[in-house]
Specification:
The complex is a heterodimer of chains A (203) and B (114).
Chain A lengths: L1 E8 L2 H13 L3 E4 L10 E7 L2 H18 L3 E8 L2 E4 L8 E7 L6 H12 L2 H4 L5 E6 L2 E3 L6 E7 L2 H10 L1 H6 L18 E5 L8
Antiparallel strand pairs in A: 1-3, 1-4, 2-3, 4-8, 5-7, 6-9, 6-10, 7-9
Chain B lengths: L3 E10 L4 H18 L3 E8 L10 E9 H13 L2 H10 L3 E9 L5 H5 L2
Antiparallel strand pairs in B: 1-3, 1-4, 2-3
């Protein structure tokens, strides 16, 4: 499977119309919730059977964004990476997407360990119900994003509570994101976005 | 009530640079750290004498209260150019360093079940 995540900035009056257009193109789309960080105004994601199908579909998505007057889109497309589903079919939860760019000088040498530790987060933080961690094939926007870290929670409390408060996150994983730590590999510019997509995105 | 979180800088100074490094840390790093809510717990110098030809190890421990306190300092520091500037400035005085985040064993259960 091949997926696309788009975090779109656009005026408030245009959001509902663009969400409808993107849904008509086969995607899921919803307003980004309060508390995001550089997460856009509208989150959208698309799933395709393969890369070729995505390539064929992409021009219509770009046209819809242009027509709606989108001012910015942080996006990444990717073959699905590792994932898991503790709550298959979860459709009324909250999807969270993190676009990150592991572009610090030592990133290449440390990438395998970084990825291995990231995919253990759901084991230690069961509030992450469904998840996927993928390497971006192509990306655009503020940076050339290298990874897409997606999760689904039963509700926003899972993201704001256990995910943020668990020591596996802040005392271990975050050192990859923290310029004060020698292991730092991830650019401090991130897209942390979350939305109630209204459908099961990761299972 | 939030548990005490320890932020430990474990720094091996370049040979003969231990005292200079600690002075720089105190003058160029510590004030900003305090402003971000970090409380200095202790500074340990090992061995407890200043070496000229060899390295001193500095173990500098700060505390914050709970994960909210940890995120408070962490989010501020990563977008503060003065912090990056300090570590760049100190780089020539450092042979090796690590930073750890931990807690008293008695607090592990409470911290990890959130």
């Amino acid at each position: 499977m091949f997926d696309l995540v788009c975090l779109i900035d656009l005026s408030e009056p245009a959001r509902a119309g663009l969400a409808a257009s993107l849904k008509a193109l086969g995607g899921s789309a919803a307003p980004v919730m309060e508390g995001n960080f550089n997460g856009g105004d509208l989150a959208a994601r698309f799933s395709y059977t393969d890369e070729a199908t995505y390539r064929a579909a992409r021009p219509a998505i770009d046209a819809a964004l242009a027509e709606a007057g989108a001012t910015r889109c942080n996006w990444a497309c990717f073959e699905r990476g590792q994932g898991g589903a503790a709550a298959p079919g979860l459709a009324d939860g909250v999807w969270r997407g993190l676009l990150l760019c592991a572009d610090r000088p030592q990133a290449e040498a440390r990438l395998d360990q970084f990825e291995a530790e990231m995919v253990l987060m759901p084991k230690y933080i069961p509030a992450i119900r469904n998840w996927r961690f993928s390497r971006a094939l192509e990306s655009g926007g503020d940076l050339k994003w290298t990874h897409v870290w997606e999760q689904e929670y039963a509700d926003i409390g899972g993201l704001m509570g256990p995910y943020m408060l668990h020591p596996y996150h802040w005392a271990l994983i975050d050192r990859w994101f923290d310029p004060e730590c020698p292991d730092w590999i991830v650019n401090v510019t991130l897209c942390h976005s979350f939305a109630a997509l209204g459908e099961a995105a990761l299972s | 009530m939030d548990q005490t979180i320890y932020i430990v800088d474990d720094i091996v100074a370049a040979p003969g640079k231990g005292r200079e490094l600690l002075e720089l840390y105190r003058s160029a790093y510590a004030p900003g750290a305090r402003a971000r809510g970090m409380v200095l717990d202790r500074e340990i110098v090992a061995p407890p004498m200043w070496l000229d030809e060899l390295s001193n190890r500095l173990l500098i421990t700060w505390t914050v209260q709970g994960a909210p306190g940890w995120w408070g300092q962490g989010v501020q520091s990563r977008y503060d150019p003065a912090v990056a500037e300090f570590w760049q400035q100190a780089d020539g005085l450092i042979a090796q360093r690590a930073r750890y985040f931990g807690a008293a064993e008695a607090d592990v259960e409470g911290i990890s079940h959130v």
